[in-house]
Structures are given as structure tokens and as C-alpha cells.
Design a protein that fits this description.
The complex is a heterodimer of chains A (530) and B (228).
Chain A (H helix, E strand, L loop, with lengths): L1 H6 L10 H24 L11 H8 L2 H33 L5 H13 L2 H15 L3 H4 L2 H26 L2 H8 L4 H30 L2 H5 L5 H11 L3 H32 L16 H27 L2 H10 L1 H30 L4 H16 L2 H12 L5 H4 L3 H25 L3 H8 L4 H9 L4 H17 L4 H4 L7 H8 L5 H32 L1
Chain B lengths: L11 E10 L2 E11 L4 E5 L6 H9 L6 E6 L2 E5 L2 E2 L8 E4 L11 H11 L4 H14 L15 H13 L5 E5 L7 H18 L2 E6 L2 H7 L3 E5 L2 E4 L1
Parallel strand pairs in B: 3-9, 3-10, 7-8, 8-9
Antiparallel strand pairs in B: 1-2, 1-4, 4-5, 5-6, 10-11
Helix pairs in contact in B: 2-3, 2-4, 3-4
Classes of the chains: A mainly alpha (530), B alpha/beta (228).
């Protein structure tokens, strides 16, 4: 072994190890199978033969065009709003001398951990209380605004990270020949634009995949129609065929996002110095006003609307008692889902991080992003098609199917986050372990994993938060009597008083925000200790 | 030794310049004069304050004390940058070269000239002429990522020269090159500097490199110039 090492720089070869292959196969088998099965089943006619019957039937319906239009409008509208709010906020946090950045950042991230349908619920309750006409409350415009407000933190965080990553000397070199405003427009913005565009595409895909908000606001899009076709009309064929255009648009957006993030990585490098700083001066009040306005609209007002509707603490306690089983179910299964998703994502993420071939790495990124973008309702119907068989009834009729849904939907996010974390780790750490005689497995468990602690924790928390708010797939696959909190909430909306629903929605928000608050307290404590 | 240099006819003059970061002096009471057309080398180990000195001259940092004059004009004084960086007429080659990755080689040079409001036709001619001077005209339409280390080096030099600066500052530009390429480029730089009579401040931690370029070497240690 040593002679080989003397002649050639050692590189771990994850793809050559059985463990990695097994991990990759298992990961893709679990995460991709529902979407693939939906795609395949859309070509199977009711009598079991190969045909385009479902498509012919759907194409004949003029309704399809309005579905496509609504879906695309929802996606573009939400991503445009997310850019308009998120990019300036990201620049303020990344480059300006605005005060209290840590707290602003944490507060403004809250909409990301609150499920979007909770915002929609707050909106309908506020609109109901103020007597807003129903056609305004339940409209595509409202859905666009709510999803834009839910997802702007993604653009904000991406913009801030990109603005911080730009090599300072790139801007300084420009400052030597041009005024700061010209540097900002011609150098800084083009360098961070790919990151903003990639985040906006992710928002587009998430809005397209969203089920809860258009469902609540009675906006007909592909995801709600897949749900109706399956759950109300028991038309499995139509549900599968409806999923395919959604899958195609999602794939297209994912390809673009993967390309953009690839370029963003090339152009941006870590730098200790900040390049072009934004000294607010007299504009500070405008910046503070913008931050406060977004926080009010996206966090404070919706929560106030819910609190007003819930009216009292006793109602909150009663709601928690009534739906305590659903809360506990959600906590248990989201934790199980997050733990399994992170475990399942480890090896594919490692393979991605250590790949020598740029093309294969891009393909993995693309697969992770595409799989994450598959809408919940598509995953739900796909899982039913796959697991609702006599041989797998034990899984299908138990909560395991919910955990599987979480795994399918969110293990790709875990893989993306873990791969990013592993890429930060110098390969020399593993090379040092290898030349010291450690096996690959020993080096993986004793060197890689311990150095990946913060990425593992972050990936777990992100999957947990997503799973805790998941509704599109869960509402389809949840076995009778095994409701999660979002499913309970969603089904109660039509059947119980608004105040009960508001109390339950607040419970959901409190549980989702709790980890964020703990994180804030932890980092604050750490900063003070330093 | 660090007293204000009485010679007042230099193109670049630093008088008792001090810069502190978080209370620690990075540059302390530095005075130096560079005559027009002269090349000086600032030699010192990493962290000795030579890069900060260069950044103060360029206007990328503001001095805490002392003053900086360029062509007799006061460009910076204690706590104030009187003339902003882009009006100082400085060409700068950064240690990491800092070629703008989203622009081609031509775009990199054009940004400099367009920022100075030069008409488009003149810009084109100037870019071609400058690239020819550093033997990089073949790369005009390439992006920085498509160039080798030596090629990037030439383009970075071309970008610093294209605006006809009155002062050229080079911050360890050869640090990442192999010995052979370094020798070749140093020779070219020297020839170019003599031909253009360009006032130049060159930073390096390599004594041989400094000696090869100029007889006027200043040694920096812990933020001070310890010998001329």
C-alpha cells in the first residue's frame, strides 16, 4: 500500500467501495421510486395495457391550460416577490452597517420554519375578520403573496452568503478605477446574481410543489388537482398523468438551478476581508424600516391574527390536549424521518463531495435538487402506487409509510447540505488517516463524521422542520387514525371553529420556532462566552 | 530613521503613516519617498505590514495618522481619504490577481477604460496595444478561468497598465508561480518598467526577487521600515 502511496497522491475512492455503492443505490431507490413509478403508471391504461389514454383524456380538457397557467403564475409570482424582498435584505445583512444583524437574520428566517399554509390560514382569518371580499381572500394573487412571504428567506440567505463570499480583491481592483456605485452594478451584482437566480428557481420549484396554500385558498394548480383526482375522484390514472407536466417543469427548473449554483461556486471564494461595504449613513432609517416592514408582514401580523382568533391561552391548552396525539405523532415521526434521512444521505453526499469527475458531480447535484423538487402530492400518490400491495401492507397501513414519505421528500435536502459540508473539509484529513493505516470505514467514522458535526446537526434540523410541516404527501398516505399535526389542522379547517384551528396553528408555529430560538440562545451564549 | 523624509520632489510620499487594526499597529510611522520613474521593493515576512502599506497608498485603507501625497497632492491624511481610490491614477496587481471571472480578458481591461469615460474606439485600440505589450493578445476573448497561471499574471499586469496609471503597485504578484516562470516574468516586468518609466512599488518576501528587480530595497519588520 505504501509504495502505491509514494507514487500517487492518495484519493479515497468512495465509488469503488461497496458501502458507497450500496448507499447510493438505496438512496436513489427510495427517493426516486415514487416519481418514476408515477411517470411509468401514467402510460398504463385502466385495463393494464400501454397507452396514452390518460393523456388524451386530460389534453381534451380545456381546464389543463388554466392549470398550467395558474401553476406557472404561482411559481413566477412567488419567486419574483421572494427576490424583491429577499435580495435587498440579503445585501443589507451581508454588506451594510445595519445594527443587530444576528437578530434580524434569525427573526427574518422564521417564515421558513413556519409551514406556508399557516400563513395562508392567518390570512384567511384576518381577511374574514376585516370583511375582505372572498374573491380577494381566495385568489391567485393572495397565494402568490403568501408563498413569496414564506420563501423570501431562501433568497435572503443565498444573497447574503454570496455577497459575503465575493473575493474582496475583485471589488477592490474595481474600486481603483471606478466609483463605488459602478463597482456595485458592474462587478458585485453580476458576481452574486447566479446565487440569487438559483435561490429564486428553488423558490419557483417549491411554490410549484406547494399544496397547502393553493388548497386552502382554492386556487386550482397541478398539485391540488393531483390530490382531487386521487382522493376525491379515485382516478389514479388522471392523478399520474397530471403529475407528469409538473415533474417536467420541476426538472427544467432544477437543471437551471443546478447550472447556476455550479457557476456560482466557480466565481465565489472565501475571503477574510469585506470588499465593498455599504455605509448607510442617513439611509439607515430606510433600511431599518424595510427590515421591520418585512418582519411585520411575514411574521408578526400573521401570528397576531392567529393569536387574536385563538383568543386565550386556555384555548391553546385545550387545542393541544385535543390534538396532543397528532402533535406527539408529528414530533416522533419527524424525528425518525430526520434521523433516517440524514443517515440515508450520508454516503451519497460523501460520494458527491469526493467525486473527481466534474460532470458526475453536477449530475448528483441535479438529482438531489430534482428529487427535492418533486411535489408532495406526487410523492404521496407514487408511494401509494408502490406500497399499497398485499406484500407490503404491514408498512402501508402503519406510520412507517409517513416516515417513508418524509425520507423520500427530504433526504435529498440532507444530501445537498451534507455534501456542501463535506466539500469544506480538506481531503488531506482523510489522506492523513489513510497513510496512518486506517481503513476507509475507520477514517469515515472517526475522521469524517466527527468533523461534520455541525453539518449533520443542520441537516437534521432542516429535515425535521420540513417534515414537521409536510402536508402534500402525508395527507394522502397517512393511515386512518394516524394523523400528523398538519393533517389534523388541514382536515379541521372545514369542520371546527376558526379559533380551534388558530390555536392548533399557533401550537405548530411554537414547536417549529422552538429549535430556532434554542439555536439563537446557543449562538448568543457562545458569542458572549467568546 | 523613521523621520519624515525631507525630499519633497517624489511622485509618492508617505509621511509618518500609521495604521492600526483592533488597536494593533499594522503599519507604524512609515515614511518613504519614491521618485518619478523609480522602482522600489518593499521586502518583509508575511504580516510585517507591507500589504497594508500598499493598500494605504491605493486608498483601500485609511491611515490613522500621517499623510500620503501623490504627485505633490495630498491624497490621504489622518482618518481621511481625501482622494478616493479611483481618482488616484493607480494600477494595482493583487496577490490573487483578482481578475473578474464574469468578464473576458477584453472585458477586464475595458472596465478600466470605460470607467474613465474613454470613447469606445480608442478603448479597443488601447486594449490591443496593452495586451500586445505584455504578450497576451492571443487571450483577448478568453475568460480568466481558461488561462494558465502565467497567462493570468500577464493579463493582470495588462489590466493594471491599460489606464496609463501614474503609479504601479504590485502585491507579491509572483507568489504562486514556479521559479522558471517567475524569472521570465520578472525580466519582462523590468524591461517594461524601464521602457515606460513607470513609478513602481513592488512587494515581496523573496530577497532574490527584490534584488533582481531593483537596487532600492526597503526592509519592513513589524510595521516599520527598518532599513533602506
Amino acid at each position: 500500500m505504501n509504495s502505491a502511496l509514494n507514487h500517487k497522491r492518495f484519493r479515497p475512492r468512495p465509488l469503488h467501495t461497496a458501502a458507497c455503492w450500496l448507499g447510493i443505490v438505496l438512496f436513489f431507490a427510495l427517493c426516486a421510486s415514487p416519481a418514476i413509478s408515477m411517470f411509468g403508471l401514467s402510460f398504463i391504461s385502466d385495463d393494464g395495457g400501454l397507452s396514452f389514454a390518460h393523456y388524451r383524456r386530460l389534453l381534451a380538457e380545456p381546464r389543463q391550460q388554466s392549470l398550467l397557467l395558474n401553476s406557472v403564475l404561482l411559481g413566477t409570482g412567488a419567486s419574483t416577490l421572494a427576490i424583491l424582498l429577499g435580495a435587498p435584505l440579503g445585501l443589507l445583512l451581508g454588506r451594510s452597517d445595519v445594527r443587530g444583524k444576528t437578530w434580524w437574520r434569525l427573526a427574518l428566517v422564521v417564515p421558513l420554519v413556519v409551514p406556508p399554509y399557516v400563513l395562508a390560514l392567518a390570512w384567511t382569518q384576518w381577511a374574514g375578520a376585516t370583511g375582505l371580499p372572498a374573491e380577494w381572500t381566495y385568489s391567485l394573487t393572495s397565494a402568490v403573496c403568501i408563498l413569496g412571504l414564506s420563501f423570501y428567506p431562501l433568497v435572503m440567505l443565498a444573497t447574503e452568503a454570496a455577497a459575503r463570499r465575493v473575493q474582496a480583491s475583485l471589488e477592490e481592483a474595481a474600486l481603483l478605477v471606478a466609483a463605488p456605485s459602478r463597482v456595485a452594478i458592474k462587478i458585485t451584482l453580476p458576481l452574486i446574481a447566479p446565487a440569487i437566480a438559483a435561490a429564486a428557481l428553488v423558490v419557483f420549484v417549491l411554490a410549484l410543489a406547494e399544496f397547502g396554500v393553493p388548497g386552502l385558498l382554492r386556487v386550482n394548480v397541478f398539485t391540488t388537482d393531483v390530490f382531487t383526482a386521487f382522493a376525491a375522484l379515485y382516478d389514479f390514472g388522471a392523478a399520474t398523468a397530471l403529475s407528469v407536466p409538473l415533474l417536467l417543469v420541476t426538472l427544467l427548473a432544477a437543471v437551471l438551478a443546478a447550472r447556476l449554483t455550479g457557476e456560482a461556486r466557480l466565481t465565489a471564494r472565501q475571503s477574510g476581508r469585506a470588499g465593498l461595504a455599504l455605509h448607510l449613513g442617513g439611509w439607515r432609517i430606510v433600511a431599518d424600516g424595510l427590515l421591520l416592514f418585512v418582519l411585520l408582514v411575514s411574521v408578526c401580523l400573521p401570528l397576531l391574527a392567529l393569536a387574536r382568533e385563538a383568543a386565550s391561552l386556555s384555548r391553546l391548552v385545550a387545542a393541544f390536549k385535543d390534538s396532543g396525539d397528532a402533535v406527539l405523532n408529528s414530533l416522533a415521526w419527524s424525528s425518525a424521518g430526520a434521523t433516517l434521512a440524514v443517515t440515508l444521505a450520508l454516503l451519497p453526499a460523501y460520494a458527491r463531495a469526493r467525486m473527481k469527475s466534474q460532470r458526475a458531480a453536477q449530475l448528483f447535484d441535479l438529482l438531489f435538487i430534482t428529487l427535492f423538487a418533486v411535489p408532495g402530492t406526487v410523492v404521496g400518490v407514487g408511494l401509494i402506487g408502490l406500497w399499497n400491495r398485499p406484500g407490503t401492507a404491514a408498512i402501508y397501513t402503519s406510520p412507517l409509510i409517513i416516515v417513508l414519505a418524509y425520507l423520500t421528500r427530504f433526504a435529498p435536502v440532507a444530501a445537498l447540505l451534507l455534501a456542501a459540508g463535506m466539500r469544506q473539509m480538506p481531503i488531506s484529513l482523510e489522506e492523513a488517516a489513510a497513510v496512518s493505516g486506517a481503513s476507509w470505514w475507520r477514517s469515515f467514522t472517526r475522521i469524517v463524521l466527527p468533523n461534520l458535526k455541525s453539518s449533520l446537526a443542520a441537516a437534521w434540523a432542516v429535515v425535521f422542520i420540513f417534515a414537521f410541516g409536510e402536508i402534500g404527501a402525508t395527507i394522502l398516505v397517512a393511515p386512518p387514525g394516524e394523523a400528523t399535526l398538519p393533517v389534523r389542522l388541514y382536515t379541521l379547517i372545514a369542520n371546527t371553529s376558526a379559533s380551534n384551528v388558530a390555536a392548533l396553528a399557533l401550537t405548530q408555529v411554537l414547536i417549529a420556532v422552538l429549535p430556532l430560538a434554542l439555536f439563537a440562545a446557543f449562538t448568543h451564549g457562545k458569542e458572549r462566552a467568546q | 530613521m523613521n523621520a519624515v523624509n525631507p525630499m519633497r520632489n517624489g511622485l509618492l510620499e508617505l509621511a509618518a503613516v500609521t495604521k492600526r487594526f483592533a488597536g494593533r499597529a499594522a503599519v507604524e510611522n512609515v515614511s518613504l519617498t519614491v521618485a518619478a520613474g523609480e522602482i522600489i521593493a518593499l521586502l518583509g515576512a508575511s504580516g510585517c505590514g507591507k500589504t497594508t502599506t500598499l493598500r494605504l497608498i491605493a486608498g483601500l485603507e485609511t491611515p490613522d495618522a500621517g499623510e500620503i501625497r501623490l504627485g505633490g497632492e495630498r491624497v490621504a491624511a489622518a482618518q481621511q481619504n481625501i482622494v478616493p481610490p479611483h481618482q488616484r491614477g493607480i494600477g494595482f496587481v493583487f496577490q490573487d490577481l483578482a481578475l473578474w471571472p464574469h468578464l473576458t480578458v477584453e472585458g477586464n481591461l475595458d472596465f478600466v477604460l470605460a470607467s474613465g469615460h474613454m470613447p469606445k474606439r480608442e478603448r479597443k485600440a488601447r486594449i490591443t496595444e496593452t495586451l500586445r505589450m505584455v504578450r497576451a493578445e492571443a487571450f483577448i476573448h478568453r475568460s480568466p478561468a481558461q488561462l494558465s497561471g502565467g497567462e493570468q499574471q500577464r493579463v493582470a499586469l495588462a489590466r493594471a497598465l491599460v489606464g496609463h496609471p501614474r503609479l504601479l503597485l504590485l502585491d507579491e504578484p509572483m507568489a504562486h508561480l514556479d521559479a522558471h516562470l517567475k524569472a521570465e516574468l520578472l525580466g519582462e516586468l523590468q524591461a517594461l518598467q524601464q521602457r515606460l518609466q513607470l513609478t513602481t512599488v513592488y512587494i515581496t518576501h523573496d530577497r532574490a526577487e527584490a534584488e533582481r528587480l531593483t537596487p532600492r530595497i526597503m526592509l519592513m519588520e513589524a510595521g516599520r521600515i527598518t532599513s533602506h
